[in-house]
Amino acid sequence: MDASLLVINCGSSSLKLAVFDDQHRKRASALAERLNSKNAFARIAGSEQAVPLPSGASHEIALGTLIKALKDRAIMANDPCAIGHRVVHGGETFREAALLNDETIAAIEDCASLAPLHNPVNLDGILATRSLFPSVPQVAVFDTAYHQTLPPRAFLYALPETYYRDWAVRRYGFHGTSHYFMAHEAARLLGRTPATTSIISAHLGNGCSITAIRDGISVDTSMGLTPLEGLVMGTRSGDVDPGLFDFLAGKGISAKDINEVLNKQSGLLGLSGQTNDMRSLCDLADHGHTPSALAIDIFCFRLAKYVGAMMASLTSLDALVFTGGIGENSARVRQQTLGHLSLMGFQIDNALNKSHGAHSQGRIESSDSRFPVLVIPTDEELVIAREASRLATGGSV
Ligand code: ADP
What we know:
- By secondary structure, the protein is an alpha/beta fold.
- The chain is about 40% helix and about 15% strand.
- It starts with a strand and ends with a helix.
């Protein structure tokens, strides 16, 4: 293979890497975990053998080691012709993907106060890749960019207006790359063009968000200033009464600990007291564990409420779309959610619903449903590869 595209996603202690060929087919993926700890670990997907990493390996070391391993195994023969990076927060500066240079890197640094846990580590990956491949063009693809089309009524909080003016406090929304992909794939599946297709896109993974897409454009979304707002998630609470903060502070819990609880000990994990993993929760519920069944019930009820809320931004609806690990795989979650939405005209075909699992896309509504309901596997890495190709090589790779 000659020309390849590299896609890089740096998390706080992990690094995911994918190699695409010049036809945008994924050729390999690799993962490094527990970085900056003594148990740092890396492997190439499909290979039993771990790629050895030194104890305490940084993102930069993991990246260099994995690239060398990909080259040694002839998975990536030459340097890539472009590199795409996932960057979590682009603030109001980035309305679309951007070619990386000193100026755009400085602008990403400026957005770091909005995503202090994510942007600095995304930048570490960018800088490490820059020093490994100084002459390869690099592109940043932002989780927030697709939602920059939200109108003020959807993105402003009802707070003193100076908060927005002085501190950029507003709804940004996340999972934009996945929702964008849904807008395009749903249109393709329905035989339409994205610009004339309106959908509600539910991305349900460990993080969960739902977006109203009107004629291909994001017009409302459930995540906010941070990815904490909105739906019930694996470990995040989603919406709670903001008065909770003062209540818990009155119990002597610090701001830092409240944030930790809402982000890491709530959601499905908090409700079930067992796990944040939907598959395990379904098993537990099937074996009579009542808190797990209740956690799933609350998850689906909140999701159904948000489907209703997203309707307010649309004048027509071509499909409700489920994606993400839960959305793609859990027939139970889809069925329970749609069970709350019959008044709006959603009706599910149970046989079709059950037949859709990972890697299969298609329709699951019954013939009397007012709206199509689709299951579509997401592919954020493919979107990043395409954007890297478009911006760095003019689409020639
Ligand atoms: P991330 O947001 O980390 O990318 P994923 O999109 O992979 O996460 O989604 C992970 C979630 O998908 C987990 O809750 C997992 O249990 C759930 N999931 C995966 N397969 C199934 C399945 N067959 N049934 C129910 N849930 C599933």
